[in-house]
Amino acid sequence: MRKIITIVIVLIGSITAIAQKNKIYTSLQEALDNQELVYKLDLSHSKLTKLPKEITQFQQLQYLNLEGNEIHTLSDDLGNLKNLRTLNLKQNKLVDLPESFCALKNIEVLLLSENQIKILPDSFGNLENLGWLFLKNNQIKVLPDSFGKLTRLKKLDVKHNQLTELPNTFSNLSNLQELLLQGNQLSRLPDTFGNLKKIEAINLSNNQIDELPDSFGDLKNLEWLICKENKLDDIPESFGNLSKLKLLYLNSNKISGLPKTLQKLTSLKDFNISGNKLSKSEKEKSKQLLPNCAINFENSYYSLQKALLNKKNVDILYLSENELTELPESIGELKNLQQLYLISNQLKKLPKSLEKLKKLETLSLSFNNISELPESINKLKSLKQFHLDNNKLSSLPESIKDIKNLEALHLSGNNLSDAEKEKIKKLLPDCLISF
Questions:
Q1: Percent over 90 (pLDDT), the chain
Q2: Domain boundary residue among 279, 297, 315?
Q3: pTM (global) more than 0.90
């Protein structure tokens, strides 16, 4: 009987200990009252301007969340939290980190995104157990040479910084699986980049990269690569060795030809090569090289400014959810535009130059504040799909009847009377209309 009682007591003690480890303290005072029992502390969005000195008293602390405060600097004492595994400092006002920060050798997850960090400590590589590192939306221009010592790193998010190059030691990150580098100022990658043998996903978009190293073909586990909006002239022959590649986005570069080795990419299912310099024959060639892959040649843009710089080559323009109050007359310069998406903006009217888009087949204006259409809308002779749902229309111009190719017209969520609806049906007898 005593043995059973002892077992029960031990079990209760174990359960209590586990429950204590899982408890997240959200009050500093409550935590201070239970110092030896504090494993998790969440002081996020607490309007802190500096790190409370008392935090270093929690020697058992494994999880610390300080997200969304106004912390400018970190004290050297932070490095004394030897058991810390997860540290969240995103959305603060940090400019740099003290060298003592790198004494957190047991840290596994580190979130430093959305600060104002310009430089990392030289000893940053001492965080040898780091597995997940988030540094996006800072002002970092260079990574220290010691960065290559983070050999347990699996995910690195350093997008939207000011990096111009990666250290040669970067290729030592032998366990890296996901790398997000978009929105920097990189012009090249280290020649040894191919040493990242375990990497599965890479995003290099919106940089200044003009060539990829031949070693890229050594990334045998790579499944998706996004390298759009760079300055690539060609693709290395070694790309044919990327046998696991499923998604490849190289849109908006300067590529004029594709290597024959791409035919070996039998796993590739989604390939975007739009916005490049491929001739019609090269496009046909790529279809033959990759017969089982969905290839997008259409030149898609998400910025009107960039579209106007390439006005002759713009097929699709996405300007949805941009808080646009008006559409500039310059839109009419996109003579070859076939699809225009302006969903969820604040447009009240359409520019006269819209009538110049003779090749426009799809026009989506859903969820705006448009109260009337111009009579000249009938000049969009190629229009097939017209989305006007959820606006403020009370009528349509009679000239809409002249758009003979119109197949579908979406008008739900407007102020159309029953009489107006009947009138529209008579104007467009062969068009599928939804009210």
A1: 83
A2: 297
A3: no
